[in-house]
Write a structure and sequence with these properties.
This protein is α/β, with parallel strands linked by helices. It is 39% helix and 27% strand. Helix 6 packs parallel to helix 7 and helix 8 runs antiparallel to helix 9. The longest helix has 16 residues. The chain binds adenosine-5'-diphosphate and magnesium ion. Adenosine-5'-diphosphate binds next to helix 1.
């Protein structure tokens, strides 16, 4: 049986607007980490949001399959229940809803097995996962993303991912705002997650992160089209040369933006 995330010939437009993605095909198989790189505005977040079923974007052509099922037009909730998880680049604040309650709700809603673990077991595991990422228990009581620093916000997303244990995670710039030690913890948890059969599409500007994740494939997206697929050496090439070989102007301002992950 087909397993993993398969995307074929995807063309995406913004509702009431122009075309953003064209002919995008990629695959992320179980236990694989794949990477998506590209300059600012090339369409990386659009692809992530389209995979998750964001209503802002319309699929004009092509399809998305998860474990053999066509989910191109499925509701976001259905995709999530099937095991697709998206960590947003831009996080939404939900003051008053503690993060641990939100994760518990998502966990309950998505549970498909026989006997759902109790709230007590859930809390135990949540504590273990959070402390593994250096995320203090007091932060779990805080409203979702309420006054979180950049790094805390990224870790909160990772905690959701590790608790929900989705089949495929799309992580949009998960490394931005993380200090060196936090980055190491994030990499460790990602590795454990894929060892357990999960898989991830990691969107990043940082080849160093990728060298530690050993991606199965690196995809380069330019102006809404995938222009190249390769291994880790492709990420290193981007580190050295930027995106100039694909006709992108590598002026100082743009490459500085890329480095800071804007
Ligand atoms: N809601 C929208 N309306 C119009 N254009 C949009 C919208 N969302 C994204 N875009 C455009 O789509 C292009 C790709 O954006 P995005 O996917 O955020 O790029 P990336 O994540 O690679 O930086 C950009 O030119 C952006 O301005
Ligand atoms: Mg983006």
């Amino acid at each position: 049986m087909e397993s993993g995330l398969l995307v074929s010939g995807l063309g995406v437009s913004v509702r009431d607007g122009g075309r953003i993605l064209q002919g995008v095909s990629l695959e992320v198989r179980p236990s694989e980490i794949c990477a998506l790189m590209g300059p600012n505005g090339s369409g990386k977040s659009t692809l992530a949001l389209t995979l998750a079923g964001h209503p802002r974007f319309r699929v004009d052509e092509g399809w998305i399959r998860l474990d053999g099922e066509d989910i191109t037009r499925a509701e976001p909730e259905y995709r999530a229940k099937k095991g697709l998880f998206l960590a947003f680049q831009k996080q939404v604040e939900i003051p008053g809803l503690p993060i641990e309650d939100m994760i518990w709700e998502a966990y309950r809603a998505r549970w498909t097995g026989e006997k759902r673990p109790s709230l007590i077991d859930f809390r135990k595991r949540l504590m273990a996962v959070s402390s593994g990422l250096g995320f203090g228990p007091e932060l779990l009581r805080r409203g979702v993303n309420e006054g979180f620093s950049g790094g805390e916000g990224r870790k909160a997303e990772l905690i959701q991912m590790l608790m929900l244990n989705p089949r495929v995670s799309v992580l949009d710039e998960i490394d931005s705002g993380l200090d060196v030690d936090s980055l190491r913890l994030v990499i460790q948890s990602l590795r454990e997650y894929v060892k357990g059969g999960g898989s991830a599409l990691v969107i990043t500007h940082h080849p160093r992160l990728l060298s530690m994740l050993n991606p199965a494939r690196v995809y380069v997206l330019i102006k809404g089209r995938l222009v190249e697929v390769g291994g880790q050496e492709l990420a290193e090439l981007v580190e050295r040369e930027g995106f100039s070989r694909w006709g992108e102007v590598g002026d100082g301002q743009k490459s500085a933006e890329r480095r800071s992950g804007v």
